[in-house]
# Entry
Amino acid sequence: MIVVRNNMMINDSLFFYTFNLNLKLLIMKRIFFLSIIPVLFFILPMKIKAQQSMKSDTIDILHYGLHLDLKHLSKKSLQGEAVITAVPKIFPVTSFSLDLLMLQVDTNIIDGQAALYSYNDTVIHIQPATPLTDTFTLIIGYQGTPVVESYNWGGFHFLNDSSLAYNLGVAFEAYPHNYGRVWYPCIDDFIDRATYDFFVKVKPTNMAVCGGILQSVSLQPDGFEIYHWQLEQPIPSYLVSVAVADFAHLSNQYITNGDTIPIDIYVRHADSSNAITAFSNLPFMLETFDDRFGPYRWPRVGYTGTIKGAMEHAMNIAFPRNLIQNNHNYDWLVAHELSHHWFGNLITCSSAEDMWINEGWARYCEAIFTESINGGEAYKSRIMNLQKDVIVNAHTGVGDGLLLPLYPVPQTHTYGTTVYDKGGIVVHTLRGYLGDSVFFSAIKNLLDSFAFQPLSSYQMRDFLSAETGINMTDFFEGWVFEPGFPHFSIDSVNVLPNGNNFDITVFVRQKLRHRALFTNTNIVEIGFVKPDFSIAIERMNFSGQTGVHTFTLNFNPATVLLDPEERLSDAITAETKILKNTGLVNYPSALFKADIKQLADSVLLRAEHNWVSPDQLSQPLAGLSFSTQRYWKISGVGHSGNIIDGQFYYSNKPEYDNDIFNSIYDSLVIYYRKCPE
# Structure
């Protein structure tokens, strides 16, 4: 699910500070220690607890038959009858409750007998005539004008011109966020799942579109039509949907392993031409997610053009019509909502506090689609952009306004930057931690094991531990259950000849950004760069603040890099480029530009923006104050005749540099040192 909103661009308030490094890169085959490690700024003085719904502890709803009268959209109201099949979870059941928000209840019958009930516009408390010990059928008649939250997103919408009615199953301002209860009586949580039949009466010029498969359209004696849709896969209440309008129906299909999966797009007629292009990559998206996460387990793919959205209703995704354009600008959003049919619809977060399981994974799937269609560099760029945004903004007013872990996230921030964007980069980190083969295999098996079930963060941790044979406790403690970020760096490297080989001892350090505890059982990649710029990668394990490991290689590396492929989303944003021409080269993720003045030969240049405090000087200099938030490291391999100037971003915004200015008389300089002290 996505809300499209305006985001402040980070770079709008930044400018470059040019530092004429005249970097004469060292001759290849020598370790390149010309690392602005750090390039520093300094001054010259002049939780809400997760709760399981008690309603789903008492009864388990197996099936809903929803009969809806939406003939006259101009009335902005509906009449409904819910035929509910349920089974007790405790014995006997003498009373139970259902959610229904601000609609009128007309009838309440259990197995043919009237049942006592009370209703406070929020919850129906039902007392059957006799205690329930077996499967029973409840019929509730209801009517009224459904609500829309004040945010004007979640709820049941009627357009003012009476041309469209539809629901959105999540509310941002309501607690719980589930919003099935605005249009039918239900157990409105993430846990209770049921199958559905929909019988929707509309005028002949309109169509009713729901999740599932269309069974029939029957003309009634009164001249209206009833659309019967059947959804046989059990889903929670917030994923249930209906939309009514004079839709155009566009169809496509996805063929996989001999099976044909229909693709149904329902849009306003004026949007038909745009929709052909906007949704044309759906088969490729399905192929991508099938390959990475296992088969699509639903009988069709469906998108419906609405006004608000997007929302991942099962097989009937609400998609805002203003984003249905004759281009592929919103492929990322089409892919995001589709991916919920693996993460969110197939497996569902067991509580709002676990929402990263839905939205963080769907955000990551945007990058998976990017990787599949545009390649690995585009994937890394998308992840790095997310990473920088999270590090800089997630805890500020641009994001959530406070530091949050992925779990448990307060319900006031269920749909915030941390859940979506940090969730996405933590999934990327999990992939790097496990490696592609283990990661994708384990996630396929996770989806198999928890298909059509709720899933908690702890269950995910324990399943991945058992499935991979790797104890995931420390990973989840460090990346999911704690706010902030670890930061990993190479402190020093020692190279000793060993016959025809070289023993290379790598000393690494961990620093912390916005957190108090070090992450343990870390797995980091160490890249040993050869003179031809190819990189041999080895993995290194360590816990706590420091680590050391000796690698034996058959070559003497020109330089050594930590995480050269950016597989960990720690408190570093970095880019590595091979420079072959003079001119200005931008490293946006590192907030750096390289101005190549002279090239005697190609150069591999890596720029890292480190979002932690640099090391203090071993012998402090009076009057100098370092940034507490960042420094740069510039590394690489090149020819002694190369000359490069470096340009570095400065900003007085709180997330950058306002910590180092105390008065208008302070001065700003960049301090260079060859290696840590």
In short: The CA atoms of residues 91 and 351 lie 26 Å apart. The longest helix spans residues 356-374.
